[in-house]
């Protein structure tokens, strides 16, 4: 029964793996609900600051913030948001594939790139492909904190203000529902007043509210717009990280559920093979006994 003993060992090993994947599925399901609540809680702030920024961009055309000015630098920046841990299906692979395609397109146009990595997986990937990583933020935990993101992101924002990069792209995974997450590569800078206005109108259409604001600036329009647009960009990055974390837990829960189901199928197949092997051994022993009795 050496073969039977070996099969029993495999069954025990797969059962232990199944317990681990089931536990990870339950943990991811618990964290997913909290991550979704944080993501949804951040959305009203992002929508409101987008509305205000769009209205200010239209209301004060005599001052143009550096974030809304296009320059001729032959360099682009990328903020790549991924997870710190694996075991979440193809989520990181999908967003990094989008990053690779964007890098290829920029290289074909003769534009060099520099990147910021948020998350261990993206940081490791950018180092492997030889990309220029100017800053990174890892080990963010289960809750995104804006103070941990401002420093790394500010490196690219300052570079854009100085005219060293001509555009900044934000790459992350957008949460749609538990079963679907969408990789996104969107332009963060330069900001377009028309695009912000379009987003603001979309928000108004969704909420059914229509407002036309006239602002009183204190201390002056330039100081207000400077602070607001920086906060607006930071809010977009924070929202992207929150969406990515919600997507991570959803993808991990689905991946671990699939792994648990597959482990159950493997156990059933191994048990069937074990029973067949055991039955064959019993039949062989009975045949030998009968043959021996007949010979006597």
From TrEMBL:
<keyword id="KW-1003">Cell membrane</keyword>
<comment type="similarity">
    <text>Belongs to the ATPase gamma chain family.</text>
</comment>
<comment type="function">
    <text>Produces ATP from ADP in the presence of a proton gradient across the membrane. The gamma chain is believed to be important in regulating ATPase activity and the flow of protons through the CF(0) complex.</text>
</comment>
<dbReference type="GO" id="GO:0042777">
    <property type="term" value="P:proton motive force-driven plasma membrane ATP synthesis"/>
</dbReference>
<dbReference type="GO" id="GO:0005886">
    <property type="term" value="C:plasma membrane"/>
</dbReference>
<keyword id="KW-0066">ATP synthesis</keyword>
<protein>
    <recommendedName>
        <fullName>ATP synthase gamma chain</fullName>
    </recommendedName>
</protein>
<dbReference type="Pfam" id="PF00231">
    <property type="entry name" value="ATP-synt"/>
</dbReference>
<keyword id="KW-0472">Membrane</keyword>
<keyword id="KW-0375">Hydrogen ion transport</keyword>
<keyword id="KW-0813">Transport</keyword>
<dbReference type="GO" id="GO:0005524">
    <property type="term" value="F:ATP binding"/>
</dbReference>
<dbReference type="GO" id="GO:0046933">
    <property type="term" value="F:proton-transporting ATP synthase activity, rotational mechanism"/>
</dbReference>
<comment type="subunit">
    <text>F-type ATPases have 2 components, CF(1) - the catalytic core - and CF(0) - the membrane proton channel. CF(1) has five subunits: alpha(3), beta(3), gamma(1), delta(1), epsilon(1). CF(0) has three main subunits: a, b and c.</text>
</comment>
<keyword id="KW-0139">CF(1)</keyword>
<keyword id="KW-0406">Ion transport</keyword>
<dbReference type="InterPro" id="IPR000131">
    <property type="entry name" value="ATP_synth_F1_gsu"/>
</dbReference>
<dbReference type="InterPro" id="IPR035968">
    <property type="entry name" value="ATP_synth_F1_ATPase_gsu"/>
</dbReference>
<dbReference type="GO" id="GO:0045259">
    <property type="term" value="C:proton-transporting ATP synthase complex"/>
</dbReference>
<dbReference type="InterPro" id="IPR023632">
    <property type="entry name" value="ATP_synth_F1_gsu_CS"/>
</dbReference>
């Amino acid at each position: 029964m050496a073969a039977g003993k070996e099969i029993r060992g495999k069954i025990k090993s797969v059962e232990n793996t199944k317990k681990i994947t089931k536990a990870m599925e339950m943990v991811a399901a618990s964290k997913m609900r909290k991550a979704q609540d944080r993501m949804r809680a951040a959305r009203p702030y992002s929508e409101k600051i987008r509305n205000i920024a769009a209205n200010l961009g239209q209301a004060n055309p005599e001052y143009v913030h550096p974030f809304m000015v296009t320059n001729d630098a032959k360099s682009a920046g990328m903020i790549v948001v991924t997870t710190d841990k694996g075991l979440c299906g193809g989520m990181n692979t999908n967003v990094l594939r989008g990053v690779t395609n964007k890098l290829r397109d920029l290289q074909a146009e003769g534009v060099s790139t520099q990147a910021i990595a948020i998350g261990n997986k993206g940081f490791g990937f950018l180092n492997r492909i030889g990309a220029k990583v100017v800053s990174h933020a890892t080990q963010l935990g289960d809750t995104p904190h804006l103070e941990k993101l401002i420093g790394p992101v500010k490196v690219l924002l300052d570079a854009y203000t100085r005219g060293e990069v001509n555009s900044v792209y934000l790459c992350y995974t957008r949460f749609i529902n538990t079963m679907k997450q969408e990789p996104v590569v969107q332009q963060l800078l330069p900001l377009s007043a028309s695009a912000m206005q379009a987003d603001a109108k979309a928000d108004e259409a969704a909420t059914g509210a229509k407002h036309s604001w006239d602002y009183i600036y204190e201390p002056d329009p330039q100081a207000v717009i400077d602070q607001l647009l920086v906060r607006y960009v930071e809010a977009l990055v924070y929202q992207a990280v929150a969406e990515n974390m919600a997507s991570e837990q959803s993808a991990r829960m689905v991946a671990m559920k699939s792994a648990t189901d597959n482990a159950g199928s493997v156990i059933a197949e191994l048990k069937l093979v074990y029973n067949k092997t055991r039955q064959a051994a019993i039949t062989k022993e009975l045949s030998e006994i009968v043959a021996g009795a007949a010979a006597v």
